[in-house]
Structure formats: structure tokens, C-alpha cells
Amino acid sequence: MSESLASITMTTxxxxxxxxxxxxxxxxxxxxxxxxxxxxxxxxxxxxWVQPIFQALGLKSLLAASLPVENFTHAVIHxxxxxxxxxxxxxxxxxxxxxxxTEIIDDKFLKWAQCFDTNFLKNNPRxxxx
Length: 130
Hints:
Layout lengths: L11 H10 L2 E5 L5 E7 L9 H15 L9 E5 L4 E7 L2 E7 L8 H9 L3 H4 L4 E3 L1
Antiparallel strand pairs: 1-2, 1-5, 2-6, 3-4, 4-5
């Protein structure tokens, strides 16, 4: 039986691992419109991965107009050069970019992402806000 997300606790090492695997992020309002983008300062990642997230959130909104999809918690979008995870947070959606071969997506990672504060990225010298 899997643990419920509410009962999962993470170690500092696990949180650091999740933060290390984060290569970019974007926030979207609840209607799916982009708010902020966070990229690595070294410029090693472009923003092309954000477009499929925008499209997926738009598709979710279209589906929600005719189908009951209120329990959306996350989506994973695999690209050739990236993997993006979209989670619903309180008041917005957060998309995180990780490497395409990274296999950290589990209940602990999803819980961490749902609670992730993007102020961490604003104050992290590895990232810049665009």
C-alpha cells in the first residue's frame, strides 16, 4: 500500500536532491496563463519546454469545461531533452524542469513540488527570473 501524500516526510538530503535536479521552473495562474519563468543563470536550458506546459494547461481548462477533472494534482510531460512536471499548488500551477533521464518522480517528490516555494529560486544564485 502506498503512503498518502499527507503522511510523507522528507529528509533535508531528499529536499536538497530535489532542488539539485531542478533545471528550471515556471509558474502559471489557475487559468493557465504564465506568470514567471526561472532559468539557470548559465543559460544551459532554453524556455522551449514551457510551451507544452502552457498547451497542457489550456487543454486541461478546455476539458474541465465539459468533463469533471477537478482532482488534477500533477502531469508529467516528457520531451526529447527534458522532463517537466506540473503540479497544482494553492492558487497556481508550478512547472519544474528536470533532466530527461532523471527518475525522481515519486510521491515524495510530488509532495515536495506541491509545497515548493519559488522564492527559493529567486534567492538561489543558480537561477534568474525572466
